[in-house]
Amino acid sequence: MSRLALRVFETHHCPAAILTSLHINITTLSLPQTRQLHAQILRTGLSLDSHFATKLLSLYAHHLRFSEANTLLNSIQNPHVFSFSTLIHAYSKLTRFTEAILLFSRMIISHGLVPDTRLIPSVIKACSGLDNLRIGNQVHGFCVTSGLCQDSFVQSSLVHLYLKCSRLNYAHKVFDKMSHPDVVSCSALVSGYARDGRVNEAKMLFGRMVELGIEPNLVSWNGMVAGFNQSGHCLEAVKVFRNMHLSGFKPDGTTISSVLPSVGELEDLSVGVQIHGYAYKHGVGSDKWVVCALIDMYGKCSSTMEMSQVFYEMSQRDLGACNALISGFARNGLTDDALKAFNRVRSQELKLNVVSWTSIIACCSQHGKDIESLDLFREMQLSGVKPNAVTIPCLLPACGNIAALMHGKATHGFSLRTGISDSVYVGSALIDMYANCGRIHLARICFDRMPVRNIVCWNAIMGGYAMHGNANEVIEIFHSMEKSNQKPDFITFTSLLSACSHSGFTDQGEQFFNKMSKEYGIKPRIEHYACLVTLLGRAGKLNEAYSTIENMPFEPDACVWGALLSSCRVHNNMKLAEVAADKLFELEPNNPGNYVLLSNIYANKGLWKEVDRVRDVMKSMGMKKNPGCSWIEIKNKVHMLLAGDTSHPQMIKIVEKMDNLGMEMKKLGCLPVTSFVLQDVEDQEKEHILCGHSEKLAVVLGLLNTPQGSTLQVIKNLRICGDCHGFIKFVSEFEEREIFVRDTNRFHHFKNGLCSCGDFW
DNA sequence: ATAGGGTTAG
């Protein structure tokens, strides 16, 4: 402000008109000066001319004094569109979109003013910022009828609105009407198609751009690379990166960090290393985004050494990089390194965020550290970091794995309170959790209440029912899935087939197996063949099962032979059992389960010499039977019981109760099934060994510590043993309890002396 | 007066 102007301004009788007529630039006035000027004008008693009022408005907006600006606006007698525009532009620029739109509506409705081409782009921007297509559409409609649509700024902003609201076709329509399509709209549209996975359309438009004489720039290329990367078209992303290089464009940090995730996804280490060198050469090697992406890429390519090296060479600690490091370790199964890295970050000055916590929780729940996972979740909340819609699906499997139903329910409650329970990820994880905790009806309620479902949700509920041996439900859900136009995938058929095998639906199972390739075009995988073998095996069609294995288009794996071996145990088929076992010993020489299964079969027939032979082999290989282990949740605490373990503080009571129950059983004429003991020992001794089975211990512990009539829930790390199965059936009737036992294979739901598996497992 | 891109958790 010139000295003269200031003097004029400071004298008390200076009407605003003088300032304007002097062509004084008042945009630099400070807030007090603005207020002084405003007050001065009011004192003169002159009505504000709208031109000057607009200047004052923009001053207030510039100083973020929106309430004063609004008061001023309201005091203008006949406000001009410009007065409103000034404020609307300001709101829009500050991302205060709601206020921008409200003011816009007031301008039209209360004042009957008509917007011009300058105002529209700001309003459209506010609509896209709010993802508000409804108002956006109205504004678009107005632009069409009023002819404002001819303006290229208006068109450009409309293209962005429709892209933002994922209405690619509308965006394209607007773009096609542009008389002078510009590089910005065109690039945005290309990137939109790429993000949507519409590879060919993206490429064609990119080609047309060149034909139209619009030179693609760095942003155009980057948008395409990032778009393909986001839609998971990794190969395309890398190809575009190459083409860009061939076209003579130098990549920047954005390009590199957009292409690297794709390289990682493809696990193409050599390309990754090349790009690493390339980034270095172009001087973006220490860009923090690039470093993050490099750590991620090396982690995905299983090069944890290189990953750590990049991390430690980083000049400045960055939380994103730390998180990438943690998840890189976790991805490669290095849980201890992940925990170490996590704890190191925790003890440093960097504040962990929701991603850090979620990564480590996922790491634990995916690698058998379920209790740690639950503990970390608590610590996370104590530290004041709020879990989000990703954290919950990472935590829920931990609850399911150890059947920590109370924790699971609490987590469910949390997701309802925070409004994330509608997410398909959260919903599927809840279904899995409840199914794994034996509460299939609660899983069903979650499923039924989902507003949107994807294939994962359908598979989750079907898998749940399959695990519970309820083939009728699985098939029924499969039909409603088809009705709702959801296409099945290979996992759907795994659930269908395993449900049929658990329920003895042999014919239906075979039909589904045949249909999956013929009608649904899904090639059976090896796990489907394993289900088929179990299906036939259960029905006693052991020879058919065997020929299925011989004729399948894959090299049979341990699952397939294991399925045959289990069936041989049920039907006492020694000959095929030995064939299957031989294959298993070849494929998994160090898996004690196979040896145990075979020796059980021998023991069942009283072939103790053979039993000894198997035991000797195990011994000579230094192999031990995996210790049986069961879990039970009592009053929010998860108890772990090992087979033969007498260290539990309530052991005396447990043994007493067990003896009592054993006597009651004998009174009713139920004898223990001693063939489930490995060793050839006297019957009484066998009985003693059976007493120590972990699932029995857990059930009795549950009986002692829970109220009469409440449901018990036990998880076992091995398949349930036949003696325990009989014992628990008895207990369910005698004690009038429902008892759920989840073994490695399926659920056993004991009620009134019967089990849902129909004694087949 | 309008408009463009990137990392880490499922």
Automatic annotation (TrEMBL):
It comes from the Eukaryota. PPR repeats lie at residues 80-115, 182-216, 217-251, 318-352, 353-387, 454-488, 489-524. One of its GO terms (biological process) is RNA modification. InterPro entries: DYW_dom, E_motif, PPR_At4g14850-like_plant, PPR_rpt, TPR-like_helical_dom_sf. GO terms for molecular function: RNA binding; zinc ion binding. Keywords: Repeat. Residues 671-761 form the DYW domain. Belongs to the PPR family. PCMP-H subfamily. This is DYW domain-containing protein. It comes from Deinandra increscens subsp. villosa. The lineage of its organism: Eukaryota, Viridiplantae, Streptophyta, Embryophyta, Tracheophyta.
